[in-house]
Amino acid sequence: MRKVALKGLLARKTRLGLTALAVALGVMLIAGTYVFTDTINRSFDRIFTAVYAKTDAVVSPNDSIGSQDNGTVPSLDGSVLARVKALPQVGEAQGVVNDQSGVVIGKDGKAIKSGGAPTIIGSVLPARFSAAEYPQGHAPANAGEVSIDKATAKRKGLHVGDTIGLQAAAPRKQYRISGLLTIAGVDSLGGATTVELTLPEAQRVTGKVGRYDEIYVAGRPGTTPAQLKAAIQQVEPSSVTVRTGKQQTKNQQDDIKGALSFLTTALLAFAGISLFVGAFIIFNTFSITVAQRAREFALLRTLGASRRQVLRSVLTEGLVLGVLGSLVGLGIGIVVASGLRALFKAVGVDLPSSGTVIESRTIIVSLLVGIVVTLIASLAPALRATRVPPVAALREGVALPQTRTSRLAFPLAVVLTAIGFALMAWGLFGGGSSSKALSLLGGGAALTFLGVALLSPRLVGPIASAVGRPLQALAGMTGRLARENTVRQPGRTAVTAAALMIGVALVTFASIFAAGAKKTINDAVDTGSNASVILQNINGFGPFSPGAAKAVAGVQGVQDVSPMRFSQGKLAGKDVQVTGIDPASFSTLYNVTHGSDKLKALPPDGVVVAKGYADDHDVKPGQRLQVKTPTTRTVSLRVTGIAEDRGQLLSQLTVDNQTLVRDFASTKDGFVLVGFAPGADAKAVKHAVDARLSQDFPQVEALTESEFKGNQADQINQLLGLIYALLALAIVVSLFGIVNTLVLSITERTRELGMLRAIGTSRRQVRRMIRYEAVITALIGGVLGLVLGVVLAILVTQPLDGFKLSIPVGSLVVVLILSAVAGVMAAVLPARRASRLDVLDALAYE
Amino acid sequence: MPAPSSTATTTSAIVAATDLTRRYGEGEAAVDALRGVTIAFPPSRFTAIMGASGSGKSTLMHILAGLDRPTSGSVVLDGTELAGLDDQGLTTLRRDKVGFIFQSFNLLPVLTAEENILLPLSIAGQKPDPEWIERLVDTVGLRDRLTHRPAELSGGQQQRVAVARALASRPAVVFADEPTGNLDSTTSGEVLALLRRSVDEFGQTIIMVTHDPDAAAVGDRTITLTDGRVSSDEDR
Question: Domains in chain B: how many in total?
Answer without folding.
Answer: 1
